[in-house]
Amino acid sequence: QKQWQTVSPEDRDLYKTMRNRKAGRPVALEQNAACHACGVMLPTATVQAVRSGTQRVYCPGCGRLLLAKK
């Protein structure tokens, strides 16, 4: 609950919208250069963007927001 309060209203709205569109799973991990949700192999530039963490990156296969596995 505390973390949710620190998220901007725009990002909260985006999360809620994507959650509705993606059957409750709006986020996927990038793992071994692939989307963990749909299994599509990601282009190198996409993997680098996900791992840099400086921008929102979406899976080209399923459209979920990608996060790097730490």
Structure overview:
- Helix content is 39%, strand content 16%.
- The model has no long low-confidence stretch (mean pLDDT 92).
- The longest helix has 13 residues, at 9-21.
- The chain is built from 3 helices and 3 strands; from the N terminus they run ααββαβ.
Short overview:
The protein is an alpha+beta fold and 70 residues long.
Oligomer: single chain
* CA-based gyration radius: 12 Å
**Helical/strand content category:** alpha+beta
Q: What is the N-to-C order of secondary-structure elements (H for helix, E for strand)?
A: HHEEHE
The percent range for strand residues is 15-25%
Gross morphology is: globular
Strand order of the largest sheet: 2-1-3
Poorly predicted sequence stretches spanning 5 or more consecutive residues: none
What percent of residues adopt helix (DSSP H or I)? 25-40%
Number of DSSP strands?
3
**C-alpha end-to-end distance:** 23 Å
What kind of sheet is the major sheet? 3 strands, mixed
Helices, by number, come to 3
The overall pLDDT average reads 92
